[in-house]
Predict the 3D structure of the following.
Amino acid sequence: MKIVLLSQRVEVVESYGERRDCLDQNWSRFVMDCGYAPVAAPNHAAVAVDILAMLNPAGLIFTGGNDLVAYGGAAPERDETERRLLEYAIAENLPVLGVCRGMQFIHCFFGGVLQKVEGHTAARHRLRFKGEETEVNSYHNYGVTKLQSDFLPLAASGDGIIEAMRHKSYAVMGVMWHPEREEKSRKRDIEIIQSLMEGI
């Protein structure tokens, strides 16, 4: 079974004086449903890149959680780790999917900016994805309203927030909904992972 490497959020546990990496347990179930073995990358940039090089995974998923430092977040080690991983993935032609914060990170990496949005936290809304209407969950305070020229929009919500994008040249894609937060893995989300990772 091929491996998919996942980034993790940073949680600060004040009572222990620790900064911890953590990942929603639902990610393991979802990635296995897609036919891959999930491996979590630590928020230590050099170590994460070494692991990526050793494992040679099918691709990477940048998961949700933590705002970017430029937008008030407090996890600089995560920003740096994902930056190094994305640089490596682009150089080695490895597929990358950004989910929620992950899509925001990718967008900003390529020079984009985020906007504060309303009505996209703990909500559900409908959108058109690849010509089909679908419903997605939503857990974000910042969104993408204008894409960089390097990207193609794949979906947008009714209020104009871009909900999915794909790079024109690299196997780099982003979605703003959380596939792992659905009670049961959805066929659409599984197909997104499989088609990106397999270059279909």
Q: What stands out?
A: The mean pLDDT is 95. The first helix runs from residue 26 to 33.
